[in-house]
Design a protein that fits this description.
This protein has about 160 residues and is mainly β. The chain has a single domain, classed as Methylamine Dehydrogenase, Chain H, CATH 2.130.10.10. It is built from no helices and twelve strands. It has a four-stranded antiparallel sheet, with no helix packed on it. It has a four-stranded antiparallel sheet with strand order 5-6-7-8, with no helix packed on it. A hairpin with a 4-residue loop joins strand 11 and strand 12. The protein starts with 16 loop residues before the first strand and ends in a 13-residue tail after the last strand.
């Protein structure tokens, strides 16, 4: 409760929650768990986990898949999840909770941000020292650009 600064509820998710993103309608919170390797979808009214999303990538051990950043499109149809040392961004259908695609990006993808028009999502790839631009319509990487050492987050100006 922001007026009393009291905790009103506690929802347990998997190990090391790292980031939360709310759906545009405010009905759900998507919480990544880096060590747990999952995303928990929480109903904000009941404060219950309604779905736990897991990830499987051929050739990678489960401990290499570490969800960190998550972003949801303005229309609420897709979620993008940065999978850390898996070097991929998962594209998830927010209605079925199914992973539709894994987009290969740079090394150790941490955070994500949309461009103002939401046509592109940008991933920060900490170990490869670059960012990757992903086309939101095709969910394909368009370009990677070298930036400073160990990029962790990205913010896009509205103009």
């Amino acid at each position: 409760d922001t007026s009393t600064h009291e905790i009103t509820d506690n929802v347990l998710v998997d190990a090391r929650p790292r980031f939360v993103e709310f759906t545009p309608d405010g009905k759900q919170a998507w919480v990544t768990a880096e060590i747990g390797g999952t995303v928990s979808v929480i109903d904000n009214q009941t404060r219950e986990v309604v779905q736990k999303i897991t990830f499987e990538i051929a050739g990678l051990r489960a401990e290499s898949i570490q969800p960190v950043g998550v972003r949801i499109t303005a229309d609420g149809k897709k979620a993008y999840v940065a999978l850390g040392p898996a070097n991929r961004v998962a594209v998830i259908n927010t209605h079925t909770y199914e992973v539709e695609k894994y987009v290969l990006v740079g090394q150790r993808v941490w955070q994500l941000a949309f461009t103002p028009d939401q046509k592109t999502i940008i991933s920060t790839n900490g170990v490869s020292n670059d960012i990757t631009f992903i086309d939101v319509e095709t969910d394909e990487p368009v370009q990677s650009v070298t930036v400073g050492a160990l990029p962790w987050g990205v913010v896009v100006s509205p103009n």
